[in-house]
């Protein structure tokens, strides 16, 4: 009987992995697919590979936190309770994926596991507190870093990276299978600059996929690891395989819904956000903290736009940096990249209006709503473990 | 006699109905359609995308144009030769509508917009407009 339940548990873990693949491919490869640089199929393939790399290298730290440290006694991860925990994680994520509401998979998973700990009185509040503090601090860091970039550096970065999405026709990067060895093929008439831009967009997708692997593999496998019945490496292999299935199936939908909102960003902005958010998530994974990727990314997006929208006057500190701008300007002058207007010299009348786009109450609402899916999994799991007496607690 | 009517519109069926209703009930009024761009979205990509545009006004107009085209079609279908005024505002939809409403005698608005995502992330705009508007509001379903 326990063997049967273990298998059911692994099946539900696969369901969770499947939904993780679905929910993270959109934000990671939305820009690349949206700009018609690669196909959805190729995005799914790259997502699977880099997710696995992140999972197998840094992922185990977060698995340890969730599977052994978050609860004082990991014997509460019975094969039976695991099925329920994973069911709530997977179910809540599925609802989010289906409705197009992005949700942090880590928050969803920590919520369900913490609910189990709470219902059994085994939750380690010190570990929980540390995680929650990072959930608050990490998005604030993302907001400020992106805000500074948006305010002072964005036009320059934009001048370096002159990538335009190419509309219609073949993707910028495809694989040519006709030869003996498959080779990369680039769009017709693509200049070197466009090709490097295309690589940048694909590269940041891979970076985000890697960061997702470091943080999110734990969400699918930590409870099963907590039982001690299965070793880390086989679990990571199973989890990553499930994510791969999600990438190739449900991600087609999320690329259209979740990925769509990120493709509203210029590609330069998508790159900035990806770098900032991935750096934060990977750093947190290294210290074993499951990071809330979606919230960090969203706050970085808000920060970038807000920083850009609220620049008004020339700051003397920025003036001091003018020499560097001149050399950058000289570099870009030979290509068709946009000239960056100097800070303070852009037309003043169209600047203050943009700040209307960043209304505190509506941004707060968006962040709050991203917590709906984790809340569903937490409350659902708590009520189940507290009041349904089949788990033997 | 109502002579100046504000009809806030988006891409939803309900706002089309609101415009049709306004054309039918106030045939002689001067109707202004208002579209708010940069509304809240799942990961705030929409608003930030606009904020990063080289020319905010151009970018906003580009977003609003298909919506206004549809509005003009509706006016043409209603057989109206009414001059349709168009207006673009930025940011929080309910607040933008309420701020503008003072220049008009009535606001005609659809009950809700179509998608689940809008309901979750934007909330019910009509409800907030009813609460905050300085002029009478007609809610069309």
From TrEMBL, chain A:
Pfam families: PHO4
MF GO annotations: phosphate transmembrane transporter activity
Membrane topology, record value: Multi-pass membrane protein
Statement: the UniProt record of this protein carries the keyword Transmembrane: yes
Keyword flag Transmembrane: yes
GO biological process, one term: phosphate ion transmembrane transport
Key words of the record: Membrane, Phosphate transport, Transmembrane, Transmembrane helix, Transport
InterPro entries: Phos_transporter
Regions of compositional bias (Acidic residues) in chain numbering: 333-349
Gene Ontology cellular component list: membrane
Region (Disordered): 331-352
Location within or outside the cell: Membrane
Transmembrane segments: 44-63, 83-101, 132-154, 195-212, 232-251, 263-281, 287-306
Protein task: Potential transporter for phosphate.
Family classification: Belongs to the inorganic phosphate transporter (PiT) (TC 2.A.20) family.
Identification of the protein by name: Phosphate transporter
From TrEMBL, chain B:
UspA domain location: 1-141
Superkingdom: Archaea
Pfam families assigned: Usp
Gene3D superfamilies in UniProt: HUPs
InterPro entries: Rossmann-like_a/b/a_fold (IPR014729), Universal_stress_UspA (IPR006015), UspA (IPR006016)
Family membership: Belongs to the universal stress protein A family.
Name assigned to this protein: UspA domain-containing protein
């Amino acid at each position: 009987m326990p063997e049967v339940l273990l298998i059911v548990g692994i099946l539900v873990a696969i369901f969770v992995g499947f939904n993780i693949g679905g929910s993270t491919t959109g934000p990671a490869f939305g820009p690349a697919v949206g700009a018609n640089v690669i196909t959805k199929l190729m995005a799914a393939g790259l997502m699977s590979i880099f997710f696995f790399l992140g999972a197998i290298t840094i992922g185990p730290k977060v698995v340890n936190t969730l599977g052994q440290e978050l609860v004082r006694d990991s014997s509460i991860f019975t094969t039976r309770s695991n099925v329920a925990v994973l069911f709530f994680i997977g179910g809540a994520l599925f609802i989010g994926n289906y409705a197009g509401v992005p949700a942090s998979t880590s928050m969803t998973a920590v919520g369900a596991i913490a609910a189990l700990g709470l219902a059994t009185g085994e939750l380690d509040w010190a570990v929980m507190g540390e995680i929650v503090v990072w959930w608050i601090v990490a998005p604030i860091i993302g907001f400020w870093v992106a805000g500074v970039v948006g305010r002072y550096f964005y036009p320059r970065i934009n001048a370096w990276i002159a990538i335009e999405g190419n509309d219609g026709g073949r993707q910028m990067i495809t694989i040519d299978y006709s030869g003996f060895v498959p080779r990369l093929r680039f769009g017709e008439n693509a200049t070197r600059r466009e090709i490097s831009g295309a690589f940048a967009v694909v590269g940041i997708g891979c970076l985000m996929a890697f960061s997702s692997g470091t943080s999110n593999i734990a969400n699918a496998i930590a409870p099963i690891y907590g039982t001690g019945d299965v070793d880390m490496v086989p679990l990571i292999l199973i989890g990553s395989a499930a994510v791969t299935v999600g990438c190739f199936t449900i991600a087609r939908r999320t690329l259209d819904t979740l990925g769509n909102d990120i493709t509203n960003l210029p590609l330069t902005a998508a790159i900035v956000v990806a770098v900032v958010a991935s750096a934060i998530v990977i750093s947190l994974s290294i210290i074993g903290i499951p990071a809330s990727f979606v919230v960090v990314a969203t706050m970085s997006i808000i920060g970038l736009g807000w920083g850009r929208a609220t620049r008004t006057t020339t700051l003397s500190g920025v003036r001091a940096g003018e020499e560097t701008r001149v050399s950058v300007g000289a570099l870009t002058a030979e290509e068709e990249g946009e000239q960056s207007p100097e800070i303070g010299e852009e037309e003043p009348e169209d600047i203050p209006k943009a700040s209307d786009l960043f209304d505190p109450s509506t941004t707060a609402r968006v962040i709050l709503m991203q917590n709906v899916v984790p809340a569903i999994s937490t409350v659902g799991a708590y009520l189940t473990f507290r009041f349904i007496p089949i788990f033997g607690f | 006699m109502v002579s100046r009517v504000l009809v806030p519109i988006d891409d939803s069926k309900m706002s089309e109905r609101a415009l049709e209703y306004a054309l039918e009930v106030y045939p002689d009024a001067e109707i202004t359609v208002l579209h708010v761009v940069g509304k809240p979205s799942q990961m705030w990509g929409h608003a930030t995308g606009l904020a990063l545009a080289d020319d905010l006004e151009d970018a906003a107009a580009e977003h609003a144009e298909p919506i206004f085209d549809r509005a003009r079609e509706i006016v043409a279908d209603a057989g109206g030769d009414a001059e349709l005024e168009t207006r673009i505002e930025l940011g929080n939809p309910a607040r933008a509508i309420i701020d503008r409403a003072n220049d008009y005698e009535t606001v005609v608005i659809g009950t809700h917009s179509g998608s689940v995502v809008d309901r979750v992330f934007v909330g019910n705009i009509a409800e907030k407009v009813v609460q905050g508007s300085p002029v009478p509001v007609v809610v069309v379903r």
